[in-house]
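Holo model, magnesium ion. Inputs:
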Amino acid sequence: MKIVAADVLVTSPGRNFVTLKVTTEDGLTGLGDATLNGRELSVASYLSDHVVPLLLGRDARNIEDAWQFLYRSAYWRRGPVTMSAISAVDSALWDIKAKAAGMPLYQLLGGASRRGIRAYGHASGRDLEQLFDSMRHHLELGFRAIRVQTSVPSLNAVYGVPATPATKGENGHYEPAQRGPLPAEEDWDTRAYLRHIPGVFEAVRNAFGPELPLLHDGHHRMTPIEAARLGKALEPYDLFWLEDCTPAENQEALRLVRQHTTTPLAIGEVFNTVWDYQTLIREQLIDYVRSSVTHAGGITPMRKLMDFAAQYQVKSGMHGATDISPVGMAAALHLDLAIHNFGIQEYMPHNELTNEVFRQTFTFQDGYLHPGDQPGLGVELDEKAAAQFPYQAAYLPFSRLKDGTIHDW
Ligand code: KDG
Ligand code: MG
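Output:
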């Protein structure tokens, strides 16, 4: 099953996506998501300049060998660009293998461990009224778990909250990457945030009751002791998780947070290998793994990571923001369905244009996602439609403190 072509497709139906399409001599094709938000073209170049020439003529069936070859032969290991590129190859080869077997990918991964995949959606608002509207809207859409983000008094723009609220029924989801030549500047004040957030969760619990799983994303902004304080303050409101409470580089930070709070912790959307989790999992410093198939090297290493995590009762909570393309989302859903230690899946629905370019078979019903039963991943890329939306430069924002110091965004 020789690989005869590998094409890198960049398209921007509302936002940028990078997709790898691998074709075998018998005409099978497989897709892999290589989207790295705000740095898309670096992965496209890594793939077309350095990886595609190595794929041509290889046997598409030997996925583990392809992964080890791409990881080890580069010498320069890890990093988001390298690992997103390897992810795309790995997913495309799994797509091909499952199509060749005539099975949905989850069957090759061991079959379904559950009927559906519980997903959480994003509610947000500049104030409580907008937040409650957004929460009611998500409940109407069927979500049975909701992430809560709000503005903070005295701050103009905060992660997770659109400048204008989505109107009811409109698919106006928050998209942090903005098209244009320069990144947008946001402001930040951790003390103001810490004062504000516990009251928001108290109000939400009072209005929506004790049952609904609630999540919150700290988006890498706190020091360990600040994160510990927030985790403790949120304990009465029984969060499903507090995400990315400290920046990603320092695994030790979570030890300090853990000593102070029983609020469950999730981390890792910006991690890209199992090594980033070694201490966190072995010392049981976290409860949920946030990596996506798209950024952590593909299905092959994510499966290994989740099996390692299972030994420590750590569960999955894969990243599913809109910068994970429908191809990356489908790959996540097959894995979510197959593994035993599934926790929850993030789900930000894509816009109509994206869904026209990427034809999908996955479904969302009554709060549960399912990848469908098409052979392979179940996503096809309409290349004609994709070609109508050329790449447009877009950047994620950055943050400054009141005195102008750059802070983690
Ligand atoms: O590309 C960055 C986004 O995917 C990220 O900011 C979203 O933190 C995020 C989340 O939890 O979905
Ligand atoms: Mg996050």
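Residues 167-171 have pLDDT under 50 and may be disordered. Residues 37, 176, 217, 219, 269, 319, 321, 323, 346, 396 surround 2-keto-3-deoxygluconate (ligand 1) (CB under 6 Å).
Archived with the compound record.
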